[in-house]
Amino acid sequence: MVCLTKIVAGLAVSVMMATVLLVIAFRFFNPPFTVNMIYEQAIAAHKKMRFKPRSYEWKELGQISIHLQQAVLASEDQRFMQHHGFDLWEIKRAVWDIITRKGFRGASTISMQAARSLFLPSSRTWTRKLAEAWYTILIELVWDKKRILEVYLNTVDWGRANVGAQAAARAYFSCDAKTLTAEQAALLAAILPSPHRWSAVTPSPHVLWRQARILKQMQNMPVLN
To answer: Is the pLDDT of residue 7 over 60?
Structure first.
């Protein structure tokens, strides 16, 4: 029993060290793919389903429109520069909404979403949530805010098999991520909560309402270039 405990403890320490080294490596090197891209392809192969390869092209933060940077901050995480990975104010509001039965609201920060997009599959389990929290702590310790935003913008799922800002800009507006206008950027940010259901090509009234709200809030967001 003692021997088994030591083996389990050793494996746990090894896994933790591997995650630390991975996060350190991606501080300096751009990831060639995300874990979820491999996961989705493996699931499709297992189920013998047709798989559409993901469009993915890395761009440095300076090659991504400042409008898109401001739009995702306005839409996803307005206190990005103030928190250390977990927005306690948003978490408290989310819990209160559940208690008062106002519905469920997300409290994920850009740091949490970057950890999820790059390192984890899209499965919804408690183990993934724990892993997401662990990776969030690591990237906040190892990366600066500029790198976190850069990784997020390059690895977030923008729907229609498009991963990252460059693929989304090409697919939806036939342009580069650098040349996105404020209106286009706000529209891309507007569909992020549900990119497989909402469309940037034929936006619904709700998406257009979100776009208008994001446009108003963008001017108050920082630029990290």
So the answer is: yes
